[in-house]
Amino acid sequence: MRASTFRRLLNLWPPFLCNSIRVLSLDEGYTEARVVLRLRPWNRNYVRAQFGGNLFAMTDPFWMLLILHHLGEDHYVWDKAGAIDFVAPGRTDVYAHFKLEPGVLDELRKAAAEGEKVLRWFEVHIKTAQGEVIAIVRKQIYVRLKPRERPNAARQPVASEA
After folding, report:
1. Which residue from 12, 53, 70, 150 puts its CA 20 to 30 A from 92's CA?
2. pLDDT of residue 1
């Protein structure tokens, strides 16, 4: 699917649409994404700052989606764990920029090549338009070759072979 089409679909996804989360850009190579969380009356917390759940939600799927697009149908790619460190109150719109660095995908493929699970942490900073860090979100991604692709996996007989 073209990245521009996928970006439009994400922007219509109810958890994003209803919480004023918008994907601003997704490059055609699926290596970079930019996301904004607009501050609205319905997504503020009691002290009029960005609600922490929305800060986490704006970052939730992106590392997994970017990696999954590249590793494709041969691999399982899942979110395994996540953590958020609130640095300052977000009293304006906030932004996150995800960028897969060159070589990361090759490292993941190589580490998963023998069929073992791979766990890797990725980090993104949520910032204001002026560059002030509001929160740091870490996501642990699980990668593993699917059983049919693993070397040394015993071949299961097909019903017609029995």
Report:
1. 12
2. 86
| SS3 category, 72 | helix
50 φ, ψ to 5°? -55, 135
Residue with tokens 């929160």: 135
Residue ranges with strand state E in the chain: 21-26, 32-37, 75-86, 94-99, 118-128, 133-145
Is the pLDDT at 127 greater than 90, yes or no?
A: yes
Of the candidates 135, 123, 48, the residue with the CA atom closest to the CA atom of residue 95: 135
pLDDT at 162: 45
Which residue is associated with the tokens 């590249």?
Answer: 70
Both tokens of 33, joined, read 């994404």
pLDDT at 161: 44
- 3-class SS at 45? coil
- For residue 50, the SS3 value is strand
Q: How far apart are CA 84 and CA 113, in angstroms?
A: 31
